[in-house]
Amino acid sequence: MNSFRRIALLLALLLAVLPAHAQTTRKKATRKKAAVTKVVKKKRPIKKKKAPAAEETQTADTGETTPPEPMVFGEPDSNPQPAETPVTPLEKPTPPAVAKPVQPAPLTTPTLATQAPASEVTASGPVALFAVARVPNAENAAVKLEGELLGHLRARGDVTLVDLGAAFPPPAPGSLARADGLFEEGRTAYDNLDPEAAEAKFLAAAEAYTQSPAELNPGRLAQTYVFLGASRHLNGKVDEAKAAFMLAVEADRSTRPDTTLFSQEVSTLFEEARAAVAARPVGTLVVQSQPAGARVTVNGRELGVTPLKGVELPAGHHPVVVSLPGYAPFAAYTQVKSTASAEVKAELEPTPGLAAIRDAAATAATERAFDQDVAPAEARAIGERLGARYVVLAAVWRNKKGHAEAELQAWDLRSKAKLRGVEIELTKDSRHGPAAAADQVRGFVNGAAAPRVAQSGRSGDSLIKRPWFWAVVGGAAAVTAGAIYVATTPDKGRGFNPVSGGVGF
After folding, report:
1. What three-state secondary structure class fits 278?
2. Which of 16, 348, 479, 501 has its CA at 20 to 30 Å from residue 1's CA atom?
3. Euclidean distance between CA atoms 220 and 184, whole angstroms
4. Please, which residues bridge with residue 317 across strands?
5. Best CA proximity match to 247, nearest among 287, 210, 296
6. Average pLDDT rounded to a whole number, residues 376-399
7. CB proximity list for 398: less than 8 A, separation 6 or greater
8. Closest Cα partner for 297 from 235, 337, 262, 344?
9. Which residues, including other chains, have CB under 8 Å from residue 337's CB and lie 6 or more apart?
10. Coil, strand or helix: which one is 294?
């Protein structure tokens, strides 16, 4: 009985303990699930990572076996998404400011604001050159200087000078219609056996021809004298006929009487006249012109340019023509005597167009105009009228001692470079004479003294380091802000004037 009671008490105790134990277990399980739900809600805003969702599922599935403190949720919270911050900028990187730089202009090579491209600066072009007198008593010196400068520039053939002959063509030649008409009238009278009328007509025709020596045809004049001599011979004037034949030989030594028109007596007398002309001693011819450098033609044959001295010619009358482009030709029917010298002085008159150009040159060559940094309007007008790229002006004056002095300037109207400070000494055998000035103009025109920009390195290095630069300028140079200034240094100690290498007009 006692044993039975003990068993019953134990069963009652077990029945009482087991429900309480089960309830406690259920409460623990409930608390554990609530903790899991709370952690999941904390991680829910992060949608990019799927790992927390997987961990939530795993934790929910293993609710009874998971320890009370799930450490897997605490580690991500202490360092959330460690790899995502650097990944975002690498996917679409923002290019830095220098990733695609705009190609800047080279800063190591300064350029001139007004400088033309190098191909234009160094390219040559037509040159218009004039020398003018600033005072009346320097006109002859200016004319001489212009001729010398042009001669030196033409010598090498590397400078293109403006063709004044094409720009200012000479006036139309005079008409010889009247002389030709008189000649034909004389022929008619001679054929009609009227020697007196024929003589008068041929004499008038010869005079008309010689009055226009520039248009004179020596052969035509010689035939006129042949008919004049034949008409006199018919009138019995033998000596006068021989004199006419000698004039025919002087005009054209190749002339012969036509044996089908004239008698044998005429031919015989003509040969005597020819022999007399050939036996005479020769004379000499001197030709001067203002301006110099004019072409001299005698009997249709070119003999040289002025000043022309000591040219031997057969004694007699000769048509002398002096011509210079831009000027009206000068002509004279000059007599050269045996053993004597005949002199011709030709004062050439410019055509109206060239006269206007010279007036503009005189205005552009004043001291005030030379002191300007820009090309005078008159210089630009000269270049436009003549189609010249370069305008070169030389101004001549006389100092207190009466000695002629000159200075020269040149403008490149395309690249706007300027050659300034070229002083010219007009004394004989001077180192700074016209030849040296012409060399500086040649260097300026051909690009040697024109401003250049170095292809690499500092501005001016490529120019200053070249020997011909100093040989051309013969003076001092400086480089400032990409522009090259050059000047000659005269021996007299005067301060040099700068050559503007493109800064200015």
Report:
1. helix
2. 16
3. 12
4. 335
5. 210
6. 95
7. 135, 137, 138, 141, 404, 405
8. 344
9. 283, 315
10. coil
